[in-house]
Structures are given as C-alpha cells and as structure tokens.
Amino acid sequence: MSVSSATIGQAPSVDFDRLVFDDVSRYFGRRRALAHVSFESGAGEIVGLLGPNGAGKSTALALAATTLQASSGQVCYGSRSAAQLGSALRGRIGVLAHELQLYPELTARENLEFFGALYGLDRAAERSADALARAGLDARADDPVGGFSRGMRQRVALERALLHDPTLLLLDEPFTGLDEASAEALIERLRSLKAAGRIVLLTTHDFENAEAVVDRVVLLKAGRVAAMDSSTGSLRDRYRHAMRVEAVPGGTA
Amino acid sequence: MTRFARVAWLVMRKDLTVEARSRELLLTTLFFAVSTVLVFAFGFVRDGRAVEDAAAGILWIAIAFAGTLALGRTFERERYHDVLHALLLAPVDRPAIYVGKLLGIVALMTTVELVVVPLVALLFQAGLFRYPLHVAALLGLGTTGFAAVGTLFAAMLVRARSRDVLLPVLLYPVTIPVIIAGVRGTAALLQPEADLAMAGAWIGMLVFFDVVFITLSLWTFEPVMTE
C-alpha cells in the first residue's frame, strides 16, 4: 500500500503545559481501578507511574489518553478538560501502549504512513522515513511488522507515538523487549523530549532505566497514590519502602 | 476530498491492503458462501430442475451467512494488538472510521457476490442476468444495509467475550427487513414473467432501510466506541 504523503489537513492547535489528575477515580463495574488520585505533570518533566500489577497504572494512562473517562474527578490538560478541548486534543497526545497497536500485515513504513495520514500530517511519507531512520529500521522499512522481534516492533510503535510531535507522551512499559543499546537510545530520546518541553508520563517495572530518566515518581498501590517523590537515591529502595506503607488517600505520603 | 471522506478512504484502503496480503477473510467467506450454495443445490435441485423460487432465498442466505463471517473478523483485526485504540486516538471524526470499515466490508461482500451470483444462476437455472441493473441494485443496496448494521454491531461487540455468538443473534433480527426485501425483490425478477414494478418497490424499500440504518449508525458510532 502506498499511503502517500497526501494529508487530511492540520488539526486545530490545542496547547497545554501540564497534565492534572484532580481527585480522579475510575470504576469498572464494582471493581475500583483508581481511587482519588491526584497529581500533576508539567512541561519538560518526566513522571514515572510505578506500582505492582493491577495498581492502576495502565488505567491512569488510558484516562490521560482520553480512551477512558473518569468515574469521578477530572483529568485536565492545562486548565481545560478533554470534553472542553474536543477531538483535537487527541492530536496532541502520543501513546505507546503495552500492546503495540501496529498492523502486522503492513510494513513498518506503511504503518507509520497510515497513522501519519490519519493525524493529517504534512509530508507523512518523509516524516515516516525519518522516523524509521531514527529507529534504526530503515533497512527493514518495507518488511511486514509481523516478522519483527518485540524490540523492533517496540521501536516502530514508539516512532508512531511520536510521529505527530505530541505535547503529551504516554508510555506504557516502554523498555519492554528493548536490548541495552535500544534502551539507552530511548533514554536519550526521552531526555531530548524533556528538553523540548514535552510532558511525559510513563509506567515501568524497569527501575534501572526509569531511574535514569524520570524526574518524579508517583507510586500507585491498589488504585491509590501510595507516595509521590522526587528525591534521589535508589528508586527500587524507595519503591519497596512505599509499598510496605499503607496507601494514603489524596496522594502524598 | 473532505477530511471525513479522506479518513474513510484511508481506513478502507488499509483494510483492503491488509486483506490483499492475508486473504484470510476473502478465502473463508468465499469458501463458506460457495459451500452453502452447493449444499442447497444438492437439496433443492432434482433431475436438473430447481425447486421454484428457491434461488432467491438461497442467494441471500449465502450472502448473509458469508457477510456475518466477514463482519465478525473485520473488527477482530482491530482488536488484535489493540490497534482499535490507536485508531480511536487519532484526531478524526470517529464516524469516518465507521464508514471506512463499512466500505471495506461492502467491497469484500461484493467480491464474494461476483462468484456466488453466477454459481446460483448456473446451479438453479435462475435468470439472474436477465435484468442485470435491477439485480445489481438489489444486491448493492441489500449488501450495504446488511453491512451498515453489521459493522456497527461488530464494533459494539469488539470488547465482548461472546462476540462470535452475539453478533448473529443481534444482527439477524434487525436486518431481517433488508434480507426479506432482497429475497422478494430478487424473486420478483426470477419469475417466468418478471415483475419489474414489484422489484422496483423492493429496491425503494432497500433505499429507505439503507438511509435509516446508515444514519442511525453514524449517529451512534461515537458513543458506542467510547468506553
């Protein structure tokens, strides 16, 4: 398929400089996924959402991505909610989900060009080629993604999430499947995004890599904020300490 | 091209490209439709003569069953690897995604019909090519109406565990008017003296059903896809 560089037209500008979770709760039926979660992430800041499985990290990312709606409380982009900003907001958010959201039958280039065209990007073909070069996949650009290793697909998916230069980047387990060199490249990339003033929210169980890149961590436990800290020192030790302490409603420990 | 039409075109072209690479849906639906017609042919054709009026019903049963199979799988592709969420995150009118998926399904079902219609005409000695424009109108409108409802229901059920069972259970009661109109319109054309006025009336009914179903689907797709 040649998804060409034809464009749909640029999405209206929706600027914001911080992401705010204001007393957000989310229930699935009677099951509580998040309860009274409040935190803020500003431009040029990388915030890590950490917690055991089922703590509510992916739910928090889905709420920030607008694919879920809060049961109570609200998620704000700057001073406005997703409802106030409308569908154009989605054009300012980039998501790397745990499932990589790529069509295995399409090539890496076709995947990027398809999503580039959906986002209405000018020069989608050129941008896709640049993105594949950044991911070190230009030699495999015309191979179907289904034949790629997890790490290679992860790199393509990251480029897809960044293709439209989003203001808010949401990364769910971004280091999964990456070898050491690719993980280092991702850390460098995240640092450059931070320098460019992007808001980055990531979840991970990889403390070593997270430590190298996050400015602040929000520790979730059973859907509640167990601790928020920006102190230095071993992230693993801080995590273990926070998980031993009972979760504190409202956010801070 | 408007932004809406452009998105629909992109989604349809992506679906057709994926299908051209995998041929998963085309081959399974074609095999299923041809098998259905052959089984009915063994039951309803005796000494080279088909039971009167059977051809129209068998044609539409084959189309409806094959269409249901295709509808179930088309959103399964989006669910696999969670690509549906990536589509829904794009800053586009979500009904444009629905239209793109609908056009992809209609294109697939049309391809199946290009094989099934001559097969039914041959095995049941049905005069499906005597009035090709009328038959094309009935098939085109009937397929669109059936796929319009089916695409919406397939999208609704994409997160349901029992989606394979629920899709036909929900789809057939709603699309019965379309299938009846298709069968009666086709039967009117297959009579020894074709009743063109009756076929025209059923074509009019199909236009009405298509307008209603597509309007309702465009209206409800956005809330249906919001969790």
Please provide a written account of the structure.
The complex is a heterodimer of chains A (253) and B (227). Chain A has 253 residues and is of the alpha/beta class. Chain A contains eight helices and ten strands. Chain A has one domain (16-242): Rossmann fold (3-Layer(aba) Sandwich). Chain A has helices at 57-64, 82-85, 108-118, 124-134, 150-162, 180-195, 207-213, 235-244, and strands spanning 18-28, 31-42, 45-50, 72-77, 80-81, 93-96, 168-172, 199-203, 216-221, 224-229. In chain A, the strands form two sheets. A six-stranded mixed sheet of chain A has the order 6-7-8-3-9-10, with helices on both faces. A four-stranded antiparallel sheet of chain A has the order 2-1-4-5. In chain A, a hairpin with a 2-residue loop joins strand 4 and strand 5 (80-81). By secondary structure, chain B is mostly helical. Chain B has a two-stranded antiparallel ribbon with strand order 1-2. In chain B, a hairpin with a 2-residue loop joins strand 1 (45-46) and strand 2 (49-50). In chain B, helix 3 (54-79) packs antiparallel against helix 5, helix 5 (94-123) packs antiparallel against helix 8 and helix 6 runs antiparallel to helix 7 (163-190). In chain B, 47% of the residues are buried. Chain A binds chain B through residues 1, 3, 6, 8-9, 11, 65-69, 87-91, 93, 95, 97, 99-106, 110, 114-115, 117-120, 144, 160, and chain B through 3, 6-7, 10, 13-14, 17-18, 21-22, 77, 81-83, 85-93, 226-227.
